[in-house]
């Protein structure tokens, strides 16, 4: 472990990345055999270390979000039922993951990670949480593998501290950001952009400020064109922070996605988001969200590529 200096940051040395990778071994939600590969977080860390892209000192462990943080977004009843194991059967079914206290702890910790990555973004221009992106959580219920909404909680925490006023959420997960849209509906301080496959979960899509509905089977060129157009509009909102929900599931081999992006197309997507944001002096906090490739190694590669694109964008900007 490093000694923190007066800025609270580790002392830099030449081989250190230009951004911190926020991560904990307890991000694993211990879901057992489940389509959501919660072990991917550990696999991403292992891969980035094995490839010598990162060193152990590049990873920082977050603190769990406080209940006070969580309650700025979520209904006290929902939070209480999650923490005390008193969800109804219907609520567990909607969540689509098995209930355990470890699972709840994992969500609180990953949410702390998104808060930390957001703070890091203001300092380093890009912050990176090797987790999070729970965009299907609503204020009063969870669904689609998402119990609490880390991105909304991080935005509210930083707004509460008055270090940001306006935030932009750029959601490139293949699934619509329904929780994000609902939580920030009517809030002029947060612009929500979701680029998603229209014919996919969730069937009910509360409107984001900007929704880009994509047809089944959309490939790299159309995807990147549509993203570029939407980003140009969204960045003119002049946000103080961009939250990038970098889902790996628009990939053509994804089991829960019906778009057809290539590995290269996904790299270009990341590059476009980072270059657009940094080109407008907007810091970016990255969260990972979904990824259900037939081969989990592909999901890991896509998420690792996002970290690499972030480092490259910082070095080139
Ligand atoms: Zn998804």
Q: What do these coordinates show?
A:
This protein is 40% helix and 11% strand. With 317 residues, the protein is an alpha/beta fold. An eight-stranded parallel beta sheet has the order 2-1-3-8-7-4-5-6. Strand 7 (241-245), helix 9 (263-279) and strand 8 form a beta-alpha-beta unit. The chain is globular, with a radius of gyration of 18 Å. It binds zinc ion (ZN).
Question: Which secondary structure elements does this structure contain, and how are they paired or packed?
Answer:
Layout: E1 21-22, H1 40-50, E2 59-60, H2 67-71, H3 76-84, H4 89-95, H5 101-124, E3 126-129, H6 150-160, E4 167-171, H7 178-183, E5 190-197, E6 210-214, H8 220-235, E7 241-245, H9 263-279, E8 284-287, H10 296-316
Parallel strand pairs: 1-2, 1-3, 3-8, 4-5, 4-7, 5-6, 7-8
Helix pairs in contact: 1-10, 5-6, 8-9, 9-10
The structure holds zinc ion.
The site of zinc ion has 7 residues, from loops.
Task: Considering the chains and any ligands shown, give keywords for the structure.
317 residues; alpha/beta; 8-stranded parallel sheet; 10 helices; 8 strands; 11% strand; disordered N terminus; binds zinc ion
Give the termini distance in whole angstroms: 30 Å
Task: Report the major sheet.
Answer: 8 strands, parallel
Q: Give the cofactors and ligands.
A: zinc ion
Shape summary? globular
Question: Helical percent range?
Answer: 40-55%
Strand order of the largest sheet: 2-1-3-8-7-4-5-6
| Number of strand segments | 8
Q: Which structural class do the helices and strands define?
A: alpha/beta
* SSE pattern: EHEHHHHEHEHEEHEHEH
Strand content is: 5-15%
DSSP helical segment count: 10
What value does the average pLDDT take? 94
Calculate Rg over CA atoms: 18 Å
What oligomeric state do the depicted chains represent?
single chain
- Which segments are poorly predicted (pLDDT under 50) over 5 or more consecutive residues? 1-14
């Amino acid at each position: 472990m490093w000694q923190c200096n007066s800025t609270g940051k580790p002392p830099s040395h030449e081989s250190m990345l230009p951004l911190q990778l926020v991560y904990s071994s307890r991000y694993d939600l211990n879901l057992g055999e489940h389509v959501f590969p919660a072990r991917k977080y550990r696999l991403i860390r292992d891969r980035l270390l094995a490839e010598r892209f990162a060193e152990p000192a590049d990873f920082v462990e977050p603190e769990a979000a406080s209940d006070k943080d969580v309650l700025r977004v979520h209904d006290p009843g929902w939070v209480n039922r999650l923490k005390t194991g008193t969800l109804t059967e219907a609520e567990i079914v909607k969540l689509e993951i098995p209930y355990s206290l470890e699972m709840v702890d994992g969500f609180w910790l990953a949410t702390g990670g998104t808060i930390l990555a957001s703070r890091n973004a203001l300092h380093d221009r890009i912050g990176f949480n090797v987790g999070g992106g729970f965009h299907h959580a609503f204020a009063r219920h969870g669904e689609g593998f998402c119990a609490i909404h880390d991105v909304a909680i991080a935005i509210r925490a930083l707004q509460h501290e008055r270090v940001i006023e306006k935030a932009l959420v750029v959601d490139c997960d293949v699934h619509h950001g329904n929780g994000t849209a609902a939580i920030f509906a009517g809030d002029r301080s947060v612009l929500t952009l979701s680029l998603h496959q229209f014919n996919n979960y969730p069937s009910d899509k509360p409107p984001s400020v900007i929704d880009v509905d994509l047809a089944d089977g959309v490939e790299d060129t159309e995807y990147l064109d549509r993203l570029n157009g939407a980003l140009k509009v969204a960045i003119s909102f002049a946000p103080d922070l961009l939250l990038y929900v970098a889902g790996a599931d628009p990939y053509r081999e994804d089991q829960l996605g019906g778009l057809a992006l290539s590995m290269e197309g996904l790299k270009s997507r990341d590059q476009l988001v980072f270059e657009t944001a940094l080109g407008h002096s907007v810091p970016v906090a990255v969260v990972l969200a979904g990824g259900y490739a037939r081969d989990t190694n592909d999901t890991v590669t896509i998420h690792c590529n996002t970290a690499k694109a972030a480092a490259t964008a910082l070095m080139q900007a």
